[in-house]
Design brief:
2 domains, DNA-binding, 245 residues, six-stranded antiparallel β-sheet, Bact_HTH_transcr_reg (chains A, B), Arc Repressor Mutant, subunit A, homodimer, 7 helices, HTH-type transcriptional regulator YurK (chains A, B), three-stranded antiparallel β-sheet, 11 strands, alpha+beta
DNA sequence: TAGTGGTCTAGACCACGTC
DNA sequence: ACGTGGTCTAGACCACTAA
């Protein structure tokens, strides 16, 4: 039994948390990719030399963080944005009347640039590092409701282009399968602003009418920031839903 | 060991979940009030005739839902809105520059009315049931940033008045200590709107400038809705912070 | 020192999915 | 029939708090 690193060190962490870090390592290195089944609990217990209950507690935490998905009788799988259900985890906009609608992503522009100080800071890049900027419109039903401007490191997403985006499924599904970058967590900041001319035209609202602005920093494993985006949400027929617990 | 109600019934629930419901019952009945210590795990295990691990799993879930708070070496306590830390769980508005500010609640008006069909529906009351409406302004630092209109059942909050609100600490702290109603969960809907005259004046912004509207239904134990409120948030120097996981 | 929650183990059995 | 995760038990020991 490995009780190493416990002794009165200030950096003590219980065994199950060390196991968790080992599993995290396999996710970060891409050894176990999104959608894959990870080894069974007893297999991992044997491999790490701990009891099954300890592995279980490690996996429990990761399942609670949406990193893994357990399925009784089948196994434990690396979370993916491709299965339905996980698809809308990051889009909190829902129609006021509750009727679910088909979503359609319309890429508008995609170009390269150099990171300004602000983008560099939020994405943890060198100022001047190459970035890719993507603009797209999101329709729910027939109505345009979100205008997004998305900033990405060109190094992480090398050949991103309008064609690539058009071909793929959901954006995060594409990032996952094409670039091996799995979006896991995000921080959002919401404000109300008056629509500028571009947004107003795209969202088919009057210039100056109130819009919801959502700034999002998205993280992959290990809290590494990999996406920054600003979205203009039209809240005429939709609202941003949030649960406080 | 009580494995009752398991047999192939469609309403099967594991033992630890039945224990959880028993503990929930003690919270709903007010037998264990906010801030109180609940009996120790071994005590409960003996009382319910199950192993300590099973009680532990029940408490684990309730701690994850912020119903209980564990403190190593001391015991497990019913969550309360009075201890700092829990105080800002339901206010997601933070200053743009990150500097924390003193908050000050200023009650404006408080009157009685009869529930309209909409309020009755969201609060699960009979249409026409007596309700109490409270308006208040929230200042962060010296700046007015939130104008709230709050709807409550007069039956649950009998003698609520401007004086009572002025005297108390935080609103949810008051509800807890004076009326024994503990706010546990909330659903929020966010929209961007143009400021009307009243809101604009109170929040010291121009009429028609964009405001964030936050509609909230707040629940006590057992998902019982007990509060409905609409808040107008000024997002000039603040933003609504949200984490997606 | 005594009591609490926190961790870890080992083993039994159940529920589910697949072959 | 077999392997997976899900539940439950019993007991040991650790870490923290308070008297």
């Amino acid at each position: 039994m490995n009780r190493a690193s416990s002794l009165h060190a200030p950096t003590f962490s219980p065994l199950y948390r060390q196991i968790k870090q080992l599993i995290m390592g396999n996710l970060e290195s891409g050894e176990w990719g999104p959608g894959d089944a990870i080894p069974s609990e007893s297999e991992l217990a044997g491999r790490f030399g701990v009891s099954q209950g300890t592995v279980r507690k490690a996996i429990d935490e990761m399942a609670a963080e949406n990193l893994l998905v357990r399925q009784q009788g089948k196994g434990t799988f690396v979370a993916t944005h491709k299965d339905p259900g996980s698809a809308f985890r990051f889009l909190r906009l829902v129609p006021n009347d509750g009727v679910p609608q088909v979503s359609q992503s319309i890429p508008l522009e995609c170009w390269r640039a150099k990171a300004g100080p602000d983008v560099a800071r939020t994405l943890a890049l060198e100022p001047g590092a190459p970035i890719t900027i993507l603009r797209r419109l999101l329709k729910l039903g027939d109505e345009p409701v979100v205008f997004d401007e998305i900033y990405l490191s060109s190094e992480l997403f090398p050949d991103l282009s309008l064609e690539v985006v058009r071909a793929g499924d959901s954006l995060y599904g594409l990032f996952e399968s094409r670039y091996g970058v799995c979006m896991v967590r995000a921080d959002e900041r919401l404000r109300a602003v008056a629509a500028d001319r571009v947004s107003a035209e795209l969202l088919q609202v009057a210039e100056g009418s109130p819009l919801l602005v959502v700034e999002r920093v998205t993280f992959t494993y290990g809290r590494k920031p990999v996406e920054w985006r600003r979205g203009f949400y039209s809240t005429r027929n939709h609202h941003y839903r949030n649960e406080l617990g």
